[in-house]
Amino acid sequence: MAVPRVWGNRYLIHVDDIPLFGHIAFGVIDRGTNVLQVRSTTICPFNCVYCSVDAGPYSARRQSEFIVDADWLVEWVRLAYKLKRGEVLEALLDGVGEPATHPSLPKIVGELKKIVPRVALETRGFLLTKDLITRLWEAGLDRLNVSIDTLEDEKARYLTGVRWFNVGRVKEAVEYTVK
After folding, report:
1. Which stretch of DSSP H or E encloses residue 175?
2. N or C: at which end does the chain have fewer Cβ atoms within 10 angstroms?
3. 3.30.365.10, 3.30.930.10, 3.20.20.70, 3.40.50.1820: which CATH number matches 5-178?
4. 118-123: strand order across its sheet
């Protein structure tokens, strides 16, 4: 693991040499189904009023954020797949942060697609650009789950805890996705 560096008011820890089973915030989570939860990062740009994990830049208690090395993460998914004897239908990229903050997300999707039949992404949608969406589909993404709390800008800003949130941007990303 690289030496943590200061990122805002907390540490940013690059994970590339510790086991990725057994931690709820990052790594690979097997809940005994045919879906593996794959968590590449804890970073989140929002401060949602209902957040149960106190994520976001204005977190009162979080002292560290984690970002998992893409190749290391894929190796652990491969191991989980083997341990489950291939009985995995989907890798779901989700998180206690926003998965779209990971800089190697398309690479992760492409590598996961070589292991499991389906790859899905759970996101708030704000960080999706046309370029990123195109790269994710080209990498093999099968499903995109976009969580939208409201279509009203002011209410969305309140719920996400950031003044810059723009529902229109999320709608554009969703519309581009379905075309």
Report:
1. helix 167-178
2. C
3. 3.20.20.70
4. 27-30, 35-39, 90-93, 118-123, 143-146
Enter the tokens of residue 176.
Answer: 């581009």
- Name every residue whose Cβ is closer than 8 Å to that of residue 109 and which is 6 or more positions away in sequence: 93, 119, 121, 136, 139, 140, 141
Against a cut of 0.85, is the pTM above it? yes
What is the chain's pLDDT, residue by residue, as a tens digit (179 residues)?
566 777 677 888 999 999 999 999 999 999 999 999 999 999 999 999 999 898 888 888 888 999 999 999 999 999 999 999 999 999 999 999 999 999 999 999 999 999 999 999 999 999 999 999 999 999 999 999 999 999 999 999 999 999 999 999 999 999 999 98
Residues in Cβ contact with 34 at an 8 Å cutoff, skipping those fewer than 6 apart: 87, 88, 89, 90
Print burial letters for 55-91: b (CB count within 10 Å at least 16), e (below 16): bbbebeebeebbbbbbebbbebbbebbeeeeeebebb
- Which of 24, 28, 45 lies closest to 37, judged by CA? 28
**Dihedral sign from CA coordinates of 20, 23, 26, 30:** positive
| Helix, strand, or coil (residue 35) | strand
